From TrEMBL:
Keywords linked to the UniProt accession: Capsid protein, Virion
Any single Gene Ontology cellular-component annotation: endospore-forming forespore
Protein's recorded name: Spore coat protein YutH
Matching SUPFAM superfamilies: Protein kinase-like (PK-like)
Source organism per UniProt: Gracilibacillus kekensis
InterPro entries (UniProt xref): CotS-like, Kinase-like_dom_sf
Amino acid sequence: MHPIFLHYPIQVPTKQVSEQPYPTFMDQSYYYFVVPTNVSERYALELYTIAVHLHQQGFPQITCPIPSVHNQFVTMIGKEKFMLCYAKKSTDKNKLSSFHKAGFQYPYQPDSITNYGNWKELWITKIDQYEAIYQQLYHERPASIYIRDFINLFPYIVGIAENAIQYMNHVEQETQFHQHDQPTITFGRFVDQLSEPFIWCNQLVYDHPVRDIAEKIRPFMMNNNGLSSEECRSFLQEYASDLPLSIFGWKLLYARLLFPIHLLDFMDLVRHSSEQKLTINQIIENQANYEENLRTFFYQLGIDERQINNLQLDWLLDA
């Protein structure tokens, strides 16, 4: 038996079924997960209320924190903090629009896990953080070939990021909203979690729904004519038929795709791994495709840019 169960008023499950990604136990009805965490009690409470809401909305695969005998969600075991969570396994492939609809019904305004309306400030902070890392790597000796490649690429990354931040100024002036522009429950980084047997509550944030749409189609942007692929088109058509995007929503989606999260991911790989899956030449080739897809984004999706009064980005027109 895991020692964490001593702190909870539940019947102790006797069968351990996995160690990955967290120690996992099960009884006849539920799976239980021992999740290492560094979140505050307030943050954990918000995850709890969101998970309970999603269970009620038909998503029992969301891991839900359990309050301990002391009515706390974060438990110390030795010097480490954990949450004990439960969920039911799902074999359904839920639609992203259905998940967002459930999130729209959430009756509270989160404080700790909301990013809604804060993208520009968060992006500025993120670039400042990576700038500090860049300065550190710039003076590091000896430097691997991957580190040197990143150092050469970083000014380009900053330039695109600053352009995305400036574009957000334009988006914030847009007044054509509709009801689907309200915040909902989204993923910090959407990677098709809705097809998985469990969804980890610590991956959830409260934000605009286009956050997930952007991260779904971002990988397509790295391929030649990726937006025209059947998979990408069918995803967008299915989503928009259920939850149409407003003019503001389309612009916000474009702004998020402008911000080079995928290139910052590459930086993280460079920092934390000696084996790189992608060479700098592959990164540059992918980014050339990405820029072309940004340039033709609305055209490929059959949207008249004049109808949404979109800004023309000179650096893309010259690409």
